[in-house]
Amino acid sequence: MKTPNANRKHIVFYGKRNAGKSSIMNSLIGQEVSLVSDIKGTTTDTVSKAVELIPFGPVVFVDTGGIDDQGTLGELRIEKTKKTLESADFAIYVIDIEEIDHIEIELDQEFDKRNIPYIIVINKIDQVSKERLDIIKEKLGFRLKNKEILYTSVEVKSTIDDLRNKLIERLETLEIEDTLIGDIVPYNGKVIMVIPIDAEAPKGRLILPQVQLIRDCLDHGIKSYVVSDRELESAISDLKNIELVVTDSKIFKYVESMIPKDMNLTSFSIIMARQKGDLKELIEGIDQLKSLKNKDNPRILVMESCSHNTSHEDIGRVKIPKVINKTLGKEIEYHFAMGKDFPKNLKEYDLVIHCGSCMLNKKTMFNRIRLCKEAGVPITNYGMVLAYGAGILDRAVEIFI
Ligand code: SF4
């Protein structure tokens, strides 16, 4: 239950108001998570619940407001529902059986565009006779022949069990999140992680990418040595045959100066960027950054996925602009965005620089890169920029290329 949401498959329920999305989600989970009533539009906001879907593993179920909501507030709610498409790994599209005469899967193009697999669920089958249900099945089987359709009712437990089993089966065939370094460091290899304990380090704990990398090493039989920058020199002299040094991006330059020239070096954020996104695309973003030197009034959007207090050592607001201005030898106009929502006005920028995205699932980052591509705006991330600023980008990505 401690698995972060970023590492859980997001299963999202879509459909019109009163199709029975909330009831099905509650039945699958076995808890009254989402409010249910006969009144259209009871679910006005998205409702998420992290659960262990046995035997598949940790997932997040997300219930959404009706895709046919009305009025000004209704439109805002539809907008909110559509935002969940950016993080959905799997969709369940619920249709009330009484609505099948004008059946429409409003979001199917959106699912296809984002490569979101989905199941269509025809719900409330207890409200029609067996004969009518057989006719409906035959008709729909013909009309929606390439789609996976299930027939459910929360009053008929076996139909919910069938849905759960089908969901698990489909999730198991989904792409498995890539390992962080298990594919590049051999079993029994040694990795040194350098974590500065400075004003930015949270008291008494490590941050998610650091914890995830330690876990990835344990999962793949890689020996990890975790040191602060102060102890790096002595760690290097203690150990032989170090396969890789992974550092916090902020001290790239220092770490590079401390380790032998032929030792592999990268950063936590480059490792995360590779796992969550498209490393090639993010490297190309650095080419764009270089070209801004010759552009008049360039504008950069710095995007962080979590809101937090800023400080004099803040990486996004302070360090990144400083490094870029110094490296390019000019002042750039920076804009900052924080939180879950990815700005819509991407075309106004020459480049997007994204944080390490450790709290985002792979699908969300994949969609953000896609949105940038569609807007014709290159994207890169903190780790790349800091490695470039330190003059060691090629070295920092070499192990992955
Ligand atoms: S701002 Fe980005 S890198 Fe920092 S914790 Fe949030 S998702 Fe991770």
Fold and architecture overview:
The chain is α/β, with parallel strands linked by helices and 401 residues long. Among the domains are: 5-173, Rossmann fold; 190-271, Rossmann fold (3-Layer(aba) Sandwich). It contains 14 helices and 14 strands. It has helices at 21-29, 71-83, 108-113, 130-143, 157-173, 208-219, 232-238, 252-258, 268-276, 279-291, 315-328, 362-375, 382-389, 393-398; strands at residues 9-15, 47-53, 57-63, 90-96, 118-123, 149-151, 190-194, 223-227, 242-247, 265-267, 299-304, 333-338, 351-354, 379-381. Strands 2-3-1-4-5-6 form a six-stranded mixed beta sheet, covered by helices on one side. Strands 8-7-9-10 form a four-stranded parallel beta sheet, sandwiched between helices. A four-stranded parallel beta sheet has the order 12-11-13-14. A hairpin with a 3-residue loop joins β2 and β3. α11 packs parallel to α13 (382-389). The relative contact order is 0.11. Residues 304-306, 355-360 line the site of iron/sulfur cluster.
Q: Could you provide a short overview of the structure?
A:
With 401 residues, the chain is an alpha/beta fold. It has helices at residues 21-29, 71-83, 108-113, 130-143, 157-173, 208-219, 232-238, 252-258, 268-276, 279-291, 315-328, 362-375, 382-389, 393-398, and strands spanning 9-15, 47-53, 57-63, 90-96, 118-123, 149-151, 190-194, 223-227, 242-247, 265-267, 299-304, 333-338, 351-354, 379-381. Among the domains are: 5-173, Rossmann fold (3-Layer(aba) Sandwich); 190-271, Rossmann fold.
